Structure prediction request, 147 residues.
Amino acid sequence: MQPSERLTVDAAPWVGAVTRVELTVTDADTAQALGSGDVPVLGTPRVLALAEAATVGATASRLPPGFTTVGTRVELEHRAATPIGGRVVAEARLAKADGRKLVFEVLVKDGGQVVAEGRVERVIVDRARFLAKALEDKTPASREARS
Prediction:
């Protein structure tokens, strides 16, 4: 069966799945390097990327071939600064699965200190169909048709 022939993926059994991703902060991870500030501490864009990597990890091995997830919504509170050399751990827990929509609770810690917390929503998609639609929307012909 081709992925496009599958109508649904039941993610309900995955609720509660937890994944952790670690990062030791380098110069490249700082607000200065990322253009999100002028201080040499872990930048919010990198915190977000780490949180999303944890959510991807929570489902990647569970999805059937041909499927992936894409981010659709993020709520993130960046509470504390982490200096270069600091180690942070992002933990994502699948809190809810509603059809194709997955809702994760995310916590990023530096030792015992909460650096950031929030929610990330992702949607299960057929990878080939998703990419085909994304590319179709970018062709000159599709742009002219929308005009």
Notes: The chain has a mean pLDDT of 91. The beta strands are 18-24, 67-78, 87-98, 101-110, 113-126.
